[in-house]
Amino acid sequence: MAIDVEEAASTVSSNSTRTIHVTVNGVRHRSTVDARMLLVSYLRERLRLTGTHIGCDTAHCGACTVLVDGVPAKSCNLLAVMVDGRNVLTVEGLETGGKLHPVQEGFTKEHGLQCGYCTPGMMLASIGLLSKNPNPTEDEIRRGLSGNLCRCTGYVNIVKAVQYAAKKMQETPKGGA
Ligand code: FES
Ligand code: FES
After folding, report:
1. Residue 116: CB within 6 Å of ligand 2?
2. How many Å apart are CA 136 and CA 118, to the nearest integer?
3. Count of CA atoms in the C-beta half-sphere (13 A) of 149
4. Where is the domain boundary, 65, 93, 121?
5. pLDDT tens track for 91-128
6. Which residues pair with 68 in a beta bridge?
7. Given ligand 1 and candidates 53, 66, 74, which is best to mutate, with the most ligand atoms within 8 Å of its CB?
8. Which of 41, 60, 93 is the endpoint of a domain?
9. Assigned domain for 141 exists
10. Cα distance between residue 162 and residue 53, in whole Å
């Protein structure tokens, strides 16, 4: 993603606030935030979108993955001010008109989750992967999701879930939704 973390961090000072305009799941928000507020905190605490999880807070687990302008990003590793003017998609925005996104359907049908803690981030990362590579091999899926950790499933059914979604999205090119 074309966000320069160091440059953005250097432009904010502690104890300062900034007003940002960000579109989250299609809804435009104008918010005044502490310049050092993490994006994951903004989503969870300010917008109450608690489907984005915090697993490690150190950019390792991927539980906090969202899409920023269509690209997967770990929201514990971004400041809210860094998404000023951008589009963010969280797990709450996947269902449209009461219809699950093909990736959500895949995780359900192929039993791609157990405790579900990693699942929102895993699904957003999968959507990012499929947008770049609509028909990935098993190896490409495993590599594509290597930034997202799951403590429960052993990944086999997660791979099947992504394969299910890839097939469904090819059958219905607009994403099956
Ligand atoms: S909480 Fe962000 S990568 Fe783990
Ligand atoms: S389903 Fe439990 S961590 Fe992935």
Report:
1. yes
2. 21
3. 8
4. 93
5. 999 999 999 999 999 999 999 999 999 999 999 999 99
6. 71, 88
7. 74
8. 93
9. yes
10. 20
Own/partner pairs for 69-73, CB < 8 Å, 24+ apart? 69/1, 70/128, 70/131, 71/1, 71/128, 72/124, 72/125, 72/127, 72/128, 72/129, 72/147, 73/1, 73/3, 73/39
**C-alpha pair distances (Å), 27 with each of 51, 56, 66, 166, 167:** 16, 28, 15, 27, 29
The atom number, within ligand 2, closest to the CA of 122 reads 4
Q: Is the dihedral of CA 119, 91, 36, 48 positive or negative?
A: negative
pLDDT tens, 18-43?
Answer: 999 999 999 999 999 999 999 999 99
pTM of the predicted model, to two decimals?
0.90
